[in-house]
Each structure stands twice: as structure tokens, then as C-alpha cells.
Write a structure and sequence with these properties.
alpha/beta, two-stranded antiparallel sheet
Length: about 270
């Protein structure tokens, strides 16, 4: 029974009269009025015509392949993280073990959730989380995962990023102009973002195979280059620094602005 005075009980008191009762498969249904008569009335002269209007003239006009391409670019919204999706995984990536993948997933979750806690609560919380979600990992590996994550979060250049003013899963979007004047629209999400008095920092977590620091995959560079350009369009007075955190090893790679600019220019000129 519904609690006395609840909305449910008040509605039931109003509806549950014989005049409002019907049945369906021997079950009572309480409703106001005849539901079958609830359709709107339509006058005979309001019925739609069976003959469609003439098509506008532009339907039969031909456009060039370039014009069609420009229209597609203008209407489509691109995801920065998918711009290099054609990159195929190398054999070492495909053969990566389940343990490495699990470490990456757990690390990503710790980077996302631990910043909400005070510093002195982060290690106990991480230990509880890893013990619960990383039971397949040895005690030594569990401890190393926690140490690596906390080491990144305590790095002097990352303290603010993982502090109370840092933002997780920050949305970003806007337009970037191609050399011919046409524009491409982007919409994405930054894993970690903070704006300080001196600069803006954008960081993305990567759970994939760990590359050498001087061999960052081009699709990752392009993704961060787009984020950087979109942010610079609205925060022109501050430098925007981009970085990648490799969750399987707790390593930070700060990306070179020249490499980012080159990746962006190549994409915009060939899109």
C-alpha cells in the first residue's frame, strides 16, 4: 500500500471510483474518460493532399565534386580521437596480454577517481579499488600499479592537474579552417584539463602499447593537436601544453608544439 498522504495515494483516491474502472485480462484499470475517444478530431478539408508539391529547382541542379566535398565537411562533426582511426595496431599490440590491458584499465580509473579525494586518502582508496578489481594481479603488481599512479599524480607539474581545480572529461568543440577557407567542425572530450595563471594543460590517458617517447603515434599527435588548436582559439593569451599519460606504466609524455603544429597542418591540408 502507498503511504498515506503520498502523491500515489492521492491520485488513487481520485481515480478509484466505479465510473473510472475498466478491466483488462481480469485486472482493474483506473482512468479518466474513454481512452478510445481521445484522438483529435480532423475536419474533412484538413486532410493532406495526395499530390505532393513540386520539387524545388535546386533538386535537379548538378554540383561539382569539390562542392559536394565541401558540403560534407561543413555538415559533418569530427571526433578528434577518431581522426587517425585508420592506424592499424602493430603485432606487439595485438599480442599484448590480458594483464597489461587490465593494468591500463585500472590505472585509468584511478586517475579519474582519486583526484576527488584528499591526498592522505588516495593510497588507501587505491589499495581497496585495486584489490577489488585487480584480483588477477599479484600483490607485487598491484602495489606497482598504485605506486605508478600516485607518482604521476604527485609529479610537481601534475599536482594542479589532479588537484581540486582540475577537470575530468572536459568537453571541447569548435571549428578549424582549412587552407582553402572551408571549415571542419570538431567535438571531443579531454580526459584531464586545468587552466592556471601561466598556462593551460590538456592531458589524455592512453591504455595502449607503450611507445618510445620520440615515437608517439601520429594519430595521438593529431588528436592532441586538434585539442590544442581548439583551446587556443578561445584562450589566445595563454600557452596550451598537451601531454599523454600511458596508464600501463604511469609515464607522462609532454608533446612538442612543433610536432603538434605539423600534424595539424598536414591534416587540414589533406582533409
Amino acid at each position: 500500500d502507498a503511504p498515506a498522504g503520498s502523491w500515489y495515494q492521492m491520485i488513487a483516491d481520485c481515480l478509484q471510483h466505479d465510473d473510472n474502472k475498466t478491466t483488462d485480462m481480469d485486472r482493474p484499470i483506473w482512468s479518466l474518460g474513454d481512452e478510445s475517444a481521445a484522438m483529435p478530431e480532423r475536419k474533412a478539408d484538413e486532410r493532406p493532399s495526395s499530390q505532393p508539391d513540386a520539387a524545388p529547382a535546386w533538386v535537379s541542379q548538378n554540383i561539382s565534386q569539390q562542392e559536394a566535398s565541401d558540403i560534407v565537411l561543413a555538415e559533418k562533426i569530427f571526433a578528434p580521437s577518431a581522426m587517425g582511426a585508420s592506424r592499424k595496431s602493430v603485432p606487439s599490440e595485438r599480442q599484448d596480454g590480458d594483464q597489461a590491458k587490465l593494468i591500463g584499465q585500472i590505472s585509468h580509473s584511478l586517475f579519474e577517481h582519486l583526484p576527488r579525494l584528499p591526498d592522505d586518502q588516495r593510497r588507501p582508496a587505491a589499495q581497496n579499488y585495486v584489490a577489488r578489481h585487480g584480483r588477477e594481479l599479484s600483490q607485487a603488481v598491484q602495489g606497482q600499479v598504485i605506486d605508478d599512479v600516485l607518482a604521476v599524480m604527485s609529479d610537481p607539474k601534475m599536482v594542479d592537474l589532479f588537484g581540486p581545480n582540475g577537470r575530468a572529461e572536459a568537453p571541447i568543440g569548435g571549428f578549424l579552417q582549412r587552407p582553402d577557407g572551408t571549415k571542419m567542425q570538431f567535438l571531443g572530450q579531454i580526459d584531464r584539463y586545468i587552466e592556471t595563471d601561466e598556462a593551460i594543460y590538456l592531458v589524455d590517458f592512453k591504455t595502449g602499447q607503450l611507445p618510445e617517447s620520440d615515437q608517439i603515434p601520429q594519430d595521438y599527435l593529431l588528436q592532441m593537436a586538434i585539442y590544442q588548436a581548439l583551446m587556443q582559439a578561445v584562450r589566445q593569451a595563454k600557452p596550451v601544453q598537451c601531454g599523454l599519460i600511458w596508464t600501463r606504466a604511469g609515464r607522462i609524455d609532454w608533446l612538442d608544439d612543433t610536432e603538434l603544429s605539423k600534424a595539424l597542418a598536414n591534416m587540414l591540408s589533406s582533409a
